[in-house]
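User: Please predict the structure of the protein below. I'd like the answer in structure-token form so I can feed it into my own downstream comparison script.

Assistant: Understood. Taking the following sequence of 239 residues as input:
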Amino acid sequence: MKVAFEVCDAIIVLNEGMKQEIRQLIPSALSKTVVIRNPVDVSWVEGVYNPNSERFTFVGRIYNKQKRLDRLVKAFHLFKSNHEGWELVLIGDGPDRVMVDALIKEYGLEQSVRVAGWQKNPWMYLSTIGGARALVLPSDFEGSPLTIVEAMMNGLPVVSLDCPVGPSEIIKEGENGFLVPFGVSEEETVKNLAEALSEMADNVSSWEPKAIEASVEEFRPSRLKVEWEKFLVSICSGA
């Protein structure tokens, strides 16, 4: 694979984090590595962000090796000790749903954690149940987490662990969400996530849905079309 990277004309990656991985793996290929993000085209759905909602949501595959739904359930349980009445809705399906259902039961959260399953349009579904205060991403790692972008295009702030790679390039602290640091132990990471949920729950005045939407404008197809055109012209011209 290293040889392939060295002989190709260009390497296209989805974000700066991936570009830095190229720097570490094949330093000689860095000069021809170009960042062009994945396009996201999501229509605005009214009511996805609800500042009065006592609900958080997760949208994605229920695959614990990456998404760490176990961490989210534990953090929500800790958060609930000071925030009675709040709900967590998990939108999606996957191979670890049985495990997640068992963990919800173990922590006595059957009345406050709902597994909604796969939804054709998760944002419309969220709107129909009254919206949410924020999307939560508890992953150990991501590639280009488009769920974050989709949420923000609907004005919904995001609480995400600072996992490699992607969230740190999308989340602007206090403007469109919170970036949560990993702890030195899993217990500390859970605590950090629970504290971020508390901060999101207790402070609602700073979130402006249209400003959150505007913060991810660079992912719009019209913007990325221009980037692709410039890239292709440069490759074809040998520039």
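That's the full token string. The chain has a mean pLDDT of 91.
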